[in-house]
## 1
Amino acid sequence: MGAQPLMRIENLVKHFHVRLGAFGERAATVHALDDITFDILDGETLSLVGESGCGKSTTGFTLLNLHKATHGKVIYQGKNIVELDEKAMRPYRRQLQIVFQDPYSTLNPRMTIGEAVGEPILFHKLATKAELKDGIATLLADVGLPPRFASRYPHELSGGQRQRVAIARALACQPKFIVCDEAISALDVSVQAQIINLLLDLQQKYGLTYLFIAHDLAVVRHISDRVGVMYLGRLAELTSREELFDNPLHPYTKALLSAVPEADPAHERSRKRQVLQGDVPSPLSPPSGCRFHTRCPVAMDVCSKVVPEWREALPGHHVACHAVTEGISGTGGLPG
Ligand SMILES: Nc1ncnc2c1ncn2[C@@H]1O[C@H](COP(=O)(O)OP(=O)(O)OP(=O)(O)O)[C@@H](O)[C@H]1O
Ligand code: SF4
Ligand SMILES: [Mg+2]
């Protein structure tokens, strides 16, 4: 894995302006993403985790400039790509791909698999018409599908096979970076393992960088080099996979991890569980100070007043928490 940043995300903000009420009479702001700063390293798999609605997909969409950022920068190849219009974005679009949870929604039911995979090749002029058939066969082989699948239609394929086609379409663009937004979440567990192994093989073969968005912490533990934990539009913690699972610092991370069953039954019986109380507050009016203070078991006075600084608490280990800054949270477990 290269240690150079492929992408630098600086103070990125995404607010959605919405209208509420039966007649849309009230304007409101959804604070989907507020001031997140991190690097994505060349060749790594960086996972984003957190409860539903905490801003994982919005991060993926905004850093690909598929949602217009409200504020902040995404530096890629020396350019702040979030300020580019669609025309200026074109050279970068090909390199920056996204794979979704439901490939059915992105595959045209009237296009054969060959046409679906060939479309981006022709659009980006990556092969001539004469080279197209071989190009499609190579891509299908890359994702573990035989060449005869080129003449099939999406409805003739299983969920796992459709996801392989979606990955082949992304690969057809010869990307450097792929956002995998819950790309395996809808699949059966055995198929999930196959698609994960495929993604890891392709990463090795083509030097890809992944932003992997997922709910399942066991999968995240298997696939990631580093993991970022999000809470209500902000990053709570980001560090290497080993450090996050062995030495979580943020109370929210500790609570999330404590919900994951241990492989060792003896360990599982003896450990304390930290159950997260209540729901994630509304992003229409997020709590002041630390957004986690309404649910945090170790919240202090300062937590509701001052936004905790996003800082490198240990080498390569970023966290935003007053208790960590003051040395209170330490490395131990939370009261159970
Ligand atoms: N287009 C939009 N317009 C208004 N609000 C939006 C829009 N897209 C997302 N949101 C809101 O922004 C917040 C973050 O949503 P996001 O989809 O990024 O969360 P997520 O972490 O991906 O959740 P999940 O795990 O359920 O996929 C949510 O409150 C969501 O309702
Ligand atoms: S800043 Fe305060 S409320 Fe937020 S996680 Fe840390 S201790 Fe809990
Ligand atoms: Mg999402």
## 2
Amino acid sequence: MPSLLELLRPDRRLAMHLPVHGRGAALPPRLRRLLRQSPGSWDLPELPEIGGPLERQGAVASSQAQLAEAMGVDHCWFGVNGATGLLQAGLLAMAQPGDAVLLPRNAHRCLIAACELGGVMPVFLPVPFLADRGHAGSMNAEGLRQSLDPWPDPGRPISGAVLVHPTYHGYSAEIRELIELLHAKGLPVMVDEAHGTHLAFAAKRSRPLSALAAGADLVVHSLHKSAPGLAQTAVLWHRAQRVDHARLHRSLARLQTTSPSALLLASCETTLNWLFSHHWSSLYEDRRSEAINLVDDLRRRGVHIHASDDPLRLILATGELGVSGLDADDLCMRQGVIAELPEPLCLTFCLGFARHRGLAKRLLRIWRALALEGGGVPLTQIPDPPLQSTSIPELTPDEAQRRAHCIRPLAQCVDHIAAELICPYPPGVPLLVPGERISADRCRWLQSQHQRWPDQVPGMVKVLA
Ligand SMILES: Cc1ncc(COP(=O)(O)O)c(C=O)c1O
């Protein structure tokens, strides 16, 4: 096995994965220059002149203040523990122990972990399922209206709501209407826009709309999933009307490292300043139109690509050739292309912000090789999971994991309460959450998922004893 260090050497394989800077090619120019400086010269502690995200003084504080003003919000904080750390801090600022929060079924697992940390009950809202692709689509306002009528009763106060927009696959939600609806119910709204940083910097009136323009109270952007920053970098934007500043600050202090990397903080600052520049707008428009042309070209040549609202997420419909996305991913690796997200019915590539010459040819070659491998009989669709209504677990995730449990074959879990999370990663969207009672339908659906990706969905499950 090569050492980690050996694996970090330059690599000729095509990077169609996150982070989206494409192995450095699309990093902001000032960050590239910094990284060419004497190695390690930038690895500094929170010196007084640098400070940190939670300090009042120093360069980080002044950058955060300037960027918040430029974005038209009250505050922002850089994050060096991914979107994860900031989403968790946001959720725990909205909800006290003993509260509940509304979470869409396609919420990232870090939000379940936040509920676990804070003794918060998740109230799950259904999200449309795309059976031909085998994954969640995006929320619409009519669906949310129906999910909240009657108003869910978790037996404790519901203190906030989280939305995902856009999804990993680039599907965008009716974000303005969703936020207005939740605000009308008196709830603060945090939007996980990890995959949609670029939306907040696109030309005015362009669609899809960023949750920031749609009035969200908290928005988290991943600066490496949808902007060209270094891995682990993220930013939290805050409007103070519905979420108290002091609570949010305390929550961040609980969850963030006391030794943030100066390099990662500089990446946050430089990436956000780069996104505000004119250079960025034209670079983004170029990448976007190249991606649209690529998809048109491939479709004309018979390649099946599922539609997405984000042209930079290319979802190859491998199931239509009779090949799972997991097997297709192996084939891509053998052909020197690293994809991002393999799933039972498709394989998603993140085109990112680096320029890729000859990509159409390589993807066409891959599609033809898959067609030979697949034998032409399409895989069967994945039926909708039995999660089409609002649901409340019987126990909070932390309670369920503290109780005595046993491990049973999935088939024998009907009517038992889950004591563990089942969550393929990527994409990190839980299929089962600790505290949920497993109905017969749910058990059958999970078994069918186990058959499709046994490495990700276990056949033996921890349930309460
Ligand atoms: C929708 C969504 N939110 C949050 C996260 C967590 O982001 P990070 O890995 O940067 O902590 C992910 C990661 O895959 C994600 O897909």
## 3
Amino acid sequence: MCSVGLETVDHIVAGCSALAQTDYTDRHNQVASIIHWDVCRHFGVPVESRWYRHHPDRLVETDDITMMWDTTIPTARKIKANRPDICLRNRKTNTCLLIDISCPADGNIGKKHAEKLAKYSDLRVEISRMWHCRTLVVPVVLGALGTVHTGIARWLDIIPGHHNLQHLQKTVLLGSTRILRKVMSSF
Ligand SMILES: [Zn+2]
């Protein structure tokens, strides 16, 4: 597709620049929107009864929380990585979670996890200063072929709501299957 990488399964499901903006983004957004849907339900925000009909609003607000979806966080200091997938501020617990989802090649899950923590560390510091709250970066990294880090459950537990790891993995796998099928059938 990109005429650059070797046509391995890993390349097709997670490394091809020709698929990144479209197919990988769709798969990523689907996983992210499931997490968003579960957080909404946890806080009693009215949502569709089925997760696959859920289209996250840019801004969700209740008495306790403000949740931003794929939105640039305005900061006084200029910060490069300022647009996490989900920014969840909880005024009741005085915390803020910067949740970022990624579906890399399975061999890269550890690296990607560390990358996400580093990427949003400036934003984390800035938000804790601006909003005077405990702020945490929460990477949710699911390998394109289903591999997850042993600590993934602990990270999911930090996010309010019930987050079913198997469901998230299945969603990634179905996305990857769709991508493989599309590439195979295009030749
Ligand atoms: Zn390629």
